[in-house]
Amino acid sequence: MLVNPIGLPVRPEAYSDRFAVLCRQAEVPVVGLHDVRHTFATIMHRAGLAPSDAAALLGHMVAVHLATYVTPTQKGARAAAAGLGVAISEAM
Predict the structure, then answer these.
(1) CA–CA distance, 80 with 27 (Å, rounded to integer)
(2) Looking at CB atoms within 10 Å, which of 6, 8, 15, 57 has the fewest?
(3) pTM summary value
(4) What SS3 class is residue 9?
(5) What is the pLDDT along the chain (92 residues), one digit of tens a residue?
(6) Cα(15)–Cα(18) distance, rounded to whole angstroms?
(7) Whole-angstrom distance, CA of residue 14 vs CA of residue 1
(8) By CB neighbour count within 10 A (0-12 exposed, 13-18 middle, 19+ buried), where does 41 fall?
């Protein structure tokens, strides 16, 4: 449990509430902190960061990172298919 400087529990929603205030002050859309987490994970994945490193930064296991935060894309599926085609051609 997280506590404030005088030892009282901090409501978990306090972070989301504060983030919403900061979004409004910055005049940007108010999004949830979990949405920001998804965005960071996607950016790291698309930048080629190792899933183990991204998972460590986000504080969870690689399997959770891949299953929860990395969303498949059409571009990624095409690249995977092309790579598989090259690998098969080279193996023959």
Answers:
(1) 39
(2) 6
(3) 0.63
(4) strand
(5) 788 899 999 998 998 999 999 999 999 999 998 899 888 888 998 898 999 999 999 998 999 888 888 777 888 889 989 999 999 999 88
(6) 5
(7) 13
(8) buried
Please report where in the chains the tokens 């979004």 appear, as a residue: 23
How many other C-beta atoms are found inside a 10 Å radius of the C-beta of residue 57? 13
**Opening angle at CA 51, ends 46 and 54, nearest 5:** 85
CA distance 56 to 76: 23
The greatest distance separating any two alpha carbons of the chain, rounded to the nearest whole angstrom, comes to: 69
User: Residue 77 is which amino acid?
Assistant: A
